[in-house]
Amino acid sequence: MSAPKAPHRPDPTAASGSASTDRAVTATGGRSFRTAGVSRGTGGPRTAGGPRTAFTDGEGRRIGLGQLVLRYALLVAVLALMVGPFLWQLSTSLKGPTENIFSSPPSFLPSDPTLANYGRVAETIPVWEYAFNSLKVACANVVTNCVGAALAGYALARLRYRGRKAATLAFILAMLVPVEGIIIAQFTTMRELGLNNTLLGVLLPGSIGALNVLLMRNAFLGLPAEVEEAAYVDGANAWQRFLRIALPGVKGTLAVVAIFAFMGAWDDFLWPLIVLSDPQNYTLTIGLNYLHGTFANDERLVAAGTIIAVLPLIVLFACLQRYFFRGVGEGAVKG
Amino acid sequence: MKSTTAPRATSSDPAVAGPAPRSSGFGRRGPRHGPADRAGGGIRRQLPTSPWLFAAPGLLIVGAFSLYPFLSTLINSFTDRRTLVAGEFVGLANFAELLDDEMFWIGLRNSTLYVVGVVPALVLLPLLLALLVQRQIPGITFFRSAFYTPVVASIVVVGLIWVWMLDDRGLVNSLLEIVGVGKIGFLSDQWLLLMSAMAVTVWKGLGYYMIIYLAALANVPRELHEAAAVDGAGAVRRFVTVTMPAVRSTMVLVGALSSVAAFKVFSEVYLMAGPTGGPAGEDTTLVMLVQRVGTGLSGRVGYASAISVVVFVVTVALMLLVLRADRKEDA
Fold first, then answer.
1. Longest dimension (CA), chain B
2. Under DSSP, is residue B89 helix (H, G, I), strand (E, B) or coil?
3. pLDDT of amino acid B224
């Protein structure tokens, strides 16, 4: 019953579970941090300038003052590199038409912050409709992935029937197929179904991710089988066992699937770009690309558009960090 | 559908019957031979249809939109199919044409360069970053989350942010001017464009792989480090002799993940160099070429499928290469 050993896409929803990541990454908040006071080590005072101060980290390991300062300096530098560009974009989006956005030295804060650019985006492209389209696809993607992956995962993990191995293999193979390699065939399939240029067409290919199915399968396999066997003896059918006993046990994994389904759909670019041709049906990412292509010289406008696209996810991430990190762990560690 | 309790339902699953002889037909009618239980703790007796109902939606989607397109890509690569024309079997003509297609070689070159440029950075930098955020010092949770932000953002957002950052009049260039380096045309030179796109890929991937490494580092016994420190090993020495061997399998995993992703790069280059792939199309990648050739009403589905097949083959080869390199180190 080994977990699928498979090369993973860097898709954060990749299969195979591991609990250790979760613990390592998320249980870090709120640890105490004590000043260990003066450390008169074994060999007496080490520095000429009197006793050296040392701190201990959350795990009780000592950490020197110099090292601590160095660590924070590096952390702040990396922080500027990772978050700075977002803030610069936000700042640009808030600068009014009279303010010089190309000034040198650059002015990091808008002198006269205004939301006018956001209004202008909405006048240029139907940005709120695009956002609503993205929201529809993303929410539908959450529902289909949670329901479809839980059902199929349960069938693979718990139910016994002829062809189960073949079904598992089908999902593993599907997981290995690189999306980028089959987009043209997916597009012709959509055309044949008459679903190109529709939001349904955007949704369908990823609506039940093979990775999510395997992730759910592993989660169900991790539950003790005895309870379900007892329920079976008591006459519960497969549906009842699934719904009442198994499903409540895998809520965490289900949350991971939901979050990555939302993020995947909201952020997706290549597939909607190919399947949507009518600007009326654009999702937000395609709309942004359109905005950039048509009004590239209007930096304030593009900046406002990108902030509209990224803000919901940053809020989501801020609220549900735990599951984001857990998803990465479950996806990759077992490889 | 109430047959769960009926005795004959017990034989509904020959696959479970273990050493017992397989029943004929679909098993429903077959006689039972001995206990049908098997190691693994599954539930023995099953309604014959319900498991398939559970799996059906998933199988349908995956079959229709992953497995079938994969097969049809393989088949189409031997035809001259177009978006609106069914096309005929043309043998290896598409692949022969690839050899003479300058754009194909440009795409192959750029996608390969992307792997060469991005993978070492994505194997090493996130590990260093993970070491930086590993210690439980105050505020570290905030830093970890902040470093992860680019992962959460859409690649379109990330691409457009950096297009503005690296603009001739953008933030990076105005800072470079202040420092005295002068302006650099990141987005106008063919090679600088490709390198800028690589840098953006690395920037977006750092946080993701950092989390993977953090999990691996948590499993490195602390005693190893302490012993090495007692022996007088410095930080660099300990990194090479203790940390790297301990997380080597994770490094291989990250190498495999990032190389496959890098070879299939599309969005970063598409957004930064434009749909036509920069000056004279010199920044086109293979997947960009697939998208350009195969879509639209006059899309050459057959030819684009042939390029896709090359993408499949190279990604599989990359995986095998990384895994083999891993095994060699083991020996």
1. 87
2. strand
3. 79
Q: Inform me whether the C-beta atom of residue B41 falls under 8 Å from chain A C-beta atoms.
A: yes
* Number of domains present in the structure of chain B: 1
Instruction: State how far the Cα of B18 lies from the Cα of B44, in Å rounded to an integer.
Output: 11
* A160 with B15: Cβ contact below 8 A: yes
Question: Is the model's pLDDT at A152 over the cut of 90?
Answer: yes
- Only one residue has tokens 């349904």, namely A200
Among B132, B328, B127, residue whose Cα is nearest residue B246: B127
Residue A238 clears pLDDT 90, i.e. is over it: no
Task: Show the domain range for B239.
Answer: 101-294
Residue B48 has pLDDT above 80, yes or no: no
Give the model's confidence band at A51: pLDDT under 50 very low, under 70 low, under 90 confident, else very high.
very low
* Domain ranges within chain A, ordered by starting residue: 53-113, 122-332
Which residues in chain B are closer than 8 Å to A328, comparing Cβ atoms?
A: 208, 211-212
Chain B's closest residue to A197, CA to CA, is B296
Q: Is residue B96 in some structural domain?
A: no
CATH number of the domain enclosing B225: 1.10.3720.10
Q: Is 1.10.3720.10 the CATH number for A122-332?
A: yes
Nearest Cβ partner for B44 among A155, A160, A310: A160
Q: Where are the alpha helices (DSSP H) in chain A?
A: 19-26, 65-93, 116-124, 127-157, 164-176, 179-193, 199-203, 210-221, 225-233, 238-240, 247-249, 251-267, 270-275, 284-294, 299-332
Cα A40 to Cα A54: distance, rounded to the nearest angstrom: 10
Among B40, B140, B152, the residue with its CB nearest the CB of A317 is B152
d(CA A155, CA B16): 14
The verdict on residue B15 lying in a domain is no
| Contact between chains at B51 and A303 (C-beta distance less than 8 A) | no
In three-state secondary structure terms, A56 is strand
Judge residue A159's burial from the number of C-beta atoms within 10 Å of its C-beta, 0-12 exposed, 13-18 middle, 19 or more buried: buried
Work out the minimum CA distance from B120 to partner chain A, whole angstroms.
16
Chain B residue whose CA is closest to A332: B212
Contacts of A73 in chain B (CB under 8 A): none
Query: How far apart (Å, rounded) are the C-alpha atoms in residues A162 and A174?
Result: 20
Classify the C-alpha dihedral A291-A296-A297-A303 as positive or negative.
positive
Q: Where are the beta strands (DSSP E) in chain B?
A: none
Q: CA B303, CA B259: separation in Å to the nearest integer?
A: 25
pLDDT of residue B67: 93
Whether ipTM exceeds 0.90: no
Cis bond upstream, residue A205 (ω within 30): no
Domain membership of residue B260 (yes or no) is yes
